[in-house]
Amino acid sequence: MPVWFFLTVRDIRRITDDELSPLSWTLVPLIFIVQPYALIRFCKYLRRAEKQLRLRRWPVLFEYLWMIIFFGCSVFFVAGSVVEIETLTKMIVSVLSIFNFMLMHRRINKLRKRCHNEAVAERHKGYNSLEWIAVVIFTPLILGLFLYTYINSELHDNLRSKQFFKHQRAVEEAQEAAAEKAEEKN
After folding, report:
1. What pTM was estimated for this model as a whole?
2. Is 101 exposed, middle or buried (0-12, 13-18, 19+ CB in 10 A)?
3. If you write DSSP's letter for every residue of the chain in order, what string do you get?
4. Phi, psi (5° rounding) for residue 128?
5. How far apart are the first and last CA of the chain?
6. How many CA atoms lie within 13 A of 26 on its CB side?
7. In this structure, what is the dihedral angle of CA atoms 88, 93, 96, 101, given to the nearest 10 degrees?
8. Which of 74, 84, 157, 183 is the 20 to 30 A CA-CA neighbour of 38?
9. How confident is the model over 147-166, as a mean pLDDT?
């Protein structure tokens, strides 16, 4: 995603002549704290580019919904690195995130198609060959990986976060057992 933001902002800068730094936009998907502000600015620049090229724009409500989903998925994945979340839930949010991102990518491709800049790679049905390879190879690979971790309970039990919760549960059970023994003696 950082590369996508870099290329997209670069293309928007070519159209609008705005003072944008594509390199700084590579950090937006990585640092979720800046996303609410950055995504609003991104959509503002995108709307300006679409206006210059006389493209139909998304309704503002739809843009905000897209930003909320993008930001919500980022927060979810950050929380998932700290707190144990079911693999099925992670898979559902990943699919939602991919679908949400594909909507914006389609919008950007319409912008690029209307623009007179030379494409980096030839596009077929809106996507270049590298994008098609990524979708065809990585989407089943990621889904297979999620399914494998969801089905394989032994792998589930060996997750670091599961080990932490097991250890915490064992300590609590030992404390409860010690408290019961103390009550029985009294």
Report:
1. 0.63
2. middle
3. -HHHHHHHHHHHHHHH-----HHHHTTTTT-GGGHHHHHHHHHHHHHHHHHHTTPPPPPHHHHHHHHHHHHHHHHHHHHHTTS---HHHHHHHHHHHHHHHHHHHHHHHHHHHHS-SPPSS-EETTEEHHHHHHHHHHHHHHHHHHHHHHH-HHHHHT-HHHHHHHHHHHHHHHHHHHHHHHHHH-
4. -85, 175
5. 63
6. 8
7. -130
8. 84
9. 63
Residue 135, pLDDT > 60, answer: yes
**For 29-42, how does the pLDDT look when each residue is reduced to its tens digit (9 = 90+)?**
888 888 899 999 99
Residue 71 or residue 140, greater confidence: 71
Residues 76-130: pLDDT tens digits? Answer: 988 888 888 887 788 888 889 988 988 888 888 888 888 765 454 566 666 667 7
